[in-house]
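Subject: design request, 200 residues
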């Protein structure tokens, strides 16, 4: 026992000059090593391009008005017909989203697009007109993302019907970039790299 302890002590004394500076160097570094941060930011860029795309952001607004955008609409504008969020995101009592938005897309150009339970995202999940840094902070904040872990955010993107609509938006509308599965993968890789956010 005593011999072992002595051996261990001399080993520690022998290794200390080598090990200590390494440990210090590691602790003084940023929490996420630089190479992971760069890789993570590249993944975030993929996620951001989807979230900021009009097919997603037009339903993720802070005010009460969904947006219409793309060449097919002229430019970005508020939703016609005085459509508003209402108490529950499904519109005012007299003009519910589901009066016009069915469970599938209208096949007609300018016809209402559709998916099950069509309604606005809650105002705290705002992406429209927000910077990459702002969207990144929002999506990581359980207070503002519906209490989701990043894995749950990724699964929502892969499996939710309203999200899926963004890649199958009906005639005349540009789909969001990539696919639901690719975005799911990008969120997982971004999370694995420490989920870094760009500076403002
Ligand atoms: C009076 C019918 C009507 C109501 C009510 C209505 N919409 Fe629409 N909405 C439309 C039509 C029609 C279009 C397609 C317009 C076009 O393609 O020119 C559309 C398109 C949209 C789009 C696609 C915009 C884009 O750029 O991709 C979104 C998002 C949307 N509506 C959200 C909502 C939400 C949320 C509600 C309820 C709060 C709602 N709408 C209520 C008729 C309606
Ligand atoms: C028709 C409106 C609509 C469209 C279009 C839409 N969303 Fe949403 N989104 C919602 C609603 C409503 C919620 C809230 C659902 C909940 O919390 O259960 C939501 C919540 C989310 C969330 C949960 C976490 C958070 O902080 O926002 C994610 C992630 C998300 N949407 C991704 C997308 C992506 C990606 C697209 C485009 C490919 C998209 N959404 C398009 C209505 C929409």
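Subject: RE: design request

Done. Sequence follows.
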């Amino acid at each position: 026992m005593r011999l072992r302890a002595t051996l261990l002590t001399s080993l520690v004394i022998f290794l200390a000059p080598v090990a200590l500076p390494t440990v210090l160097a590691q602790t003084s570094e940023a929490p996420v090593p630089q190479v992971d941060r760069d890789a993570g930011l590249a993944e975030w860029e993929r996620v951001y391009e989807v979230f900021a795309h009009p097919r997603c952001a037009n339903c993720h607004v802070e005010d009460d008005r969904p947006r219409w955008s793309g060449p097919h609409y002229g430019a970005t504008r508020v939703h016609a017909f005085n459509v508003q969020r209402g108490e529950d995101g499904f519109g005012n009592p007299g003009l519910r989203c589901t009066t016009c938005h069915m469970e599938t897309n209208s096949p007609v150009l300018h016809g209402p697009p559709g998916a099950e339970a069509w309604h606005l995202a809650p105002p705290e999940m705002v992406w429209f007109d927000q910077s990459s840094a702002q969207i990144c902070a929002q999506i990581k904040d359980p207070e503002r993302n519906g209490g989701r872990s990043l894995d749950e955010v990724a699964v929502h993107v892969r499996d939710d019907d309203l999200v899926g609509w963004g890649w199958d938006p009906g005639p005349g509308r540009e789909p969001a970039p990539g696919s639901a599965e690719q975005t799911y993968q990008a969120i997982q890789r971004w999370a694995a790299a420490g989920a870094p956010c760009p500076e403002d």
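The first strand starts at residue 67 and ends at 68.
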